[in-house]
Specification:
By secondary structure, the chain is an alpha+beta fold. It is 28% helix and 21% strand.
Length: 170
């Protein structure tokens, strides 16, 4: 339902991206949210409303969730009160960010792999916790003016999606 709302809001024609979720989840050692997978398969990765960068499954570093996650753990970023997720542990994985330095993440615990919440933080570095799906959070950010402090609808940006470009290595 929420994935379809994001599609309808942006007027996007789903592009049927093929993703080897088994390989992705094997590397992360945790299952990703089902609706996130739906978003990836419909959008790939790219930018919503010229402002929200959605990390999906495209080749190259710009819009690739795994590449960005690997970079975050390679620099051993420990954030208080939440560390970056490492396989078998608990912590956050970023799935989107904004041009205003907002960061949208999941908080995972390997001991409870099917339970997660959304964590978001802005320039104040204070984490806000949301008990909702990825696609619901994304829709509210994009479309609801009253979704504070992370909603962008108040800026009257065009409801668009610009796909990222895959980098093909030859």
């Amino acid at each position: 339902m929420w994935v379809q709302r994001v599609i309808d809001f942006t007027g996007w024609e789903p592009s049927a991206h093929s993703v080897d979720w088994d390989a992705v989840e094997r590397e992360l050692q945790i299952p990703l949210p089902a609706d996130y997978k739906e978003l990836c398969e419909a959008f790939g990765g790219g930018t919503f409303c010229d402002s929200v960068s959605f990390l999906g499954n495209l080749e190259g570093p710009m819009f690739n969730l795994l590449v960005r996650w690997q970079a975050s753990i390679s620099v051993n970023r420990d954030s208080e009160p939440y560390p970056a997720y490492t396989p078998g542990g608990n912590g956050f994985i970023t799935w989107a960010s904004t041009e205003w330095a907002d960061q949208y993440c999941w908080l995972f615990d390997a001991e409870r792999p099917d339970e997660y919440c959304i964590l978001a933080r802005g320039d104040s570095d204070e984490w806000c916790r949301y008990e909702m799906s990825t696609s619901e959070f994304l829709y509210r950010v994009l479309a609801e003016k009253e979704f504070k402090p992370f909603g962008i609808a108040e800026y009257n940006l065009d409801p668009t999606f610009q796909p990222g470009r895959s980098v093909h290595r030859g």
